[in-house]
User: What shape does this take?
Amino acid sequence: KHIDIQLAGCSDSDKEFVMEHDDEEIFHSDFKKQGLVMKFPEFADPIEWPGLYELSVSEQDICKHNLDVAVKAYKSPPEPLDVPQNSIYPRDNVQLGSGSTLICHSMRFFPPPVRVRWTRNGEDVTDKSTLSQFYPNEDNTYNQFSHLPFTPQEGDVYTCTVDHKSMQTSDTKTW
Assistant: This one.
């Protein structure tokens, strides 16, 4: 059994268009850079889909229209909120002085997205990190990852701090 997912999501402040096959992302639209981000393995031949980004833009117009209609029809019901469960861990075995990547994983939250900030020994290093697209779960919640490349030194303390509209206070995880 195979599952294909095409997700067009939108809110007042965010938008998403992603295609998946069997829980593996094929591509997503980067609306800031106005293009597709393909997620094929490095060994795979690249595939071009002319017009697909433009399709994702038109899907956003439809999504916004449907959102406006639903808000009026249901008289602006309160938005359901699910608090993210967060964790921090290294991608690989860590050795002092060798480069690696820390991952801050936020899971089972709604609505997307989360905001992630990083520190090293109390200094903000968020600008060195990346934040993935948000990935849907079968229960209508989402997962999102932030990656921070780092070279650990003796005594270093790293934190990732997650903010989400469902939370009264930020959640900080330490590594």
